[in-house]
């Protein structure tokens, strides 16, 4: 998630603790970290971690058996990772047209990142697949770490007396390291290269270590879930993608019922009606009432996608009524406006925006 939205979530969590507030769910496009050239309009995905030699296949089997992750789980995780990249590019963005083809390419060796594929080979693949570029998973490796702590829990016997019994808490950290490259068909060159590390923590509890382990998902399921995160993360790196976040708004103000009435309409989904009521509340001479009304009008404008309007309302709340929450919100809105302009720039080559 982009830094500005992480800051937003933290800020509004503090706001919720400090005053009476409700929240609304917003979905918006966030810019890609690495913009792609305008002539890259269609892509196919490819998996390049299929071992080249029998020797490499043997080491893959040996590694899976030795680590306890299972035989072939990295290959299955890599397939899932590539699937998710394609799905995320197709469903969570409209920057690229994504072909259904998922190419399987030989290439995995013992080193993590192989040299890039030859430009002529890329051009030939793109021509045969009828795309402008390839998104290729070229490295995939998983690592599992287990730890446990001993504790106790309280139980009551038949007589109602409390006793302490031992328990074990187990944590499994599953880490997946991936390597992606995006190639362009025009020259066959690498347009982007990224090494990513993603991990998830899985926990289990039991009366003993073995019981706690049984509460953990199978390693192959854990790898699959981390692989999904890795695939989605790379898709967001190269294409503007939708993110979801919450915005809080005031539900009351002392000595004024209009802020509350507007909040009730907003909570029912009637944002137009809420705006009408809050505009009346904004004429209140008390700075706290007007400040909260202005603030809520800023949220209402953001909900309907009017960021410049939201910024104007937030300025009135912050500087006319000295609302401290609005000053923080104003910074977030300005960041969102810059991000929105960047998204427009990255999508200007797309023939039609939905």
From TrEMBL:
<feature type="signal peptide">
    <location>
        <begin position="1"/>
        <end position="21"/>
    </location>
</feature>
<dbReference type="InterPro" id="IPR045921">
    <property type="entry name" value="DUF6340"/>
</dbReference>
<dbReference type="InterPro" id="IPR011990">
    <property type="entry name" value="TPR-like_helical_dom_sf"/>
</dbReference>
<protein>
    <submittedName>
        <fullName>Tetratricopeptide repeat protein</fullName>
    </submittedName>
</protein>
<dbReference type="Pfam" id="PF19867">
    <property type="entry name" value="DUF6340"/>
</dbReference>
<keyword id="KW-0732">Signal</keyword>
């Amino acid at each position: 998630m982009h830094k500005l939205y992480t800051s937003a979530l933290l800020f509004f969590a503090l706001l919720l603790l400090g005053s009476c507030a409700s929240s609304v769910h917003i979905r918006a496009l966030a810019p890609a970290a690495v913009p792609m050239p305008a002539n890259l309009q269609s892509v196919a995905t490819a998996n390049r971690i299929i071992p080249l030699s029998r020797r490499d296949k043997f080491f893959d089997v040996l590694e899976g058996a030795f680590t306890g992750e299972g035989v072939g789980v990295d290959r299955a995780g890599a397939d899932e990772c590539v699937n998710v990249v394609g799905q995320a590019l197709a469903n969570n963005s409209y920057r690229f047209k994504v072909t259904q083809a998922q190419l399987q390419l030989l290439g995995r060796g013992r080193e993590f990142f192989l040299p890039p594929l030859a430009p002529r080979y890329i051009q030939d693949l793109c021509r045969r697949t009828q795309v402008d570029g390839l998104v290729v998973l070229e490295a995939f490796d998983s690592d599992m770490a287990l730890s446990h702590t001993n504790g106790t829990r309280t139980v009551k016997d038949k007589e109602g007396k409390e006793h302490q019994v031992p328990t074990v808490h187990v944590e499994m950290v599953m880490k997946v390291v991936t390597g992606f490259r995006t190639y362009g068909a025009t020259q066959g060159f690498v347009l982007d290269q990224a090494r990513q590390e993603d991990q998830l923590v899985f926990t289990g509890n039991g009366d003993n270590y073995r019981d706690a382990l049984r509460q953990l998902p199978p390693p192959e399921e854990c790898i699959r879930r981390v692989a999904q995160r890795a695939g989605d993360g790379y898709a967001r790196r190269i294409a503007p993608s939708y993110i979801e976040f919450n915005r809080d708004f005031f539900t009351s103000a002392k000595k004024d019922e209009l802020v509350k009435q507007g909040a009730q309409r907003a909570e029912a989904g009637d944002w137009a009606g809420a705006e009408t009521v809050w505009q009346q509340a904004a004429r209140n001479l008390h700075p706290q009432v007007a400040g909260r009304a202005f603030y809520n009008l800023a949220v209402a404008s953001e909900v309907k996608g009017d960021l410049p309007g939201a910024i104007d309302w937030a300025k009135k709340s912050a500087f006319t009524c000295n609302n401290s929450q609005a000053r923080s919100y104003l910074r977030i809105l300005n960041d969102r406006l810059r991000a929105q302009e960047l998204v427009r720039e990255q999508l200007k080559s797309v023939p039609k925006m939905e």
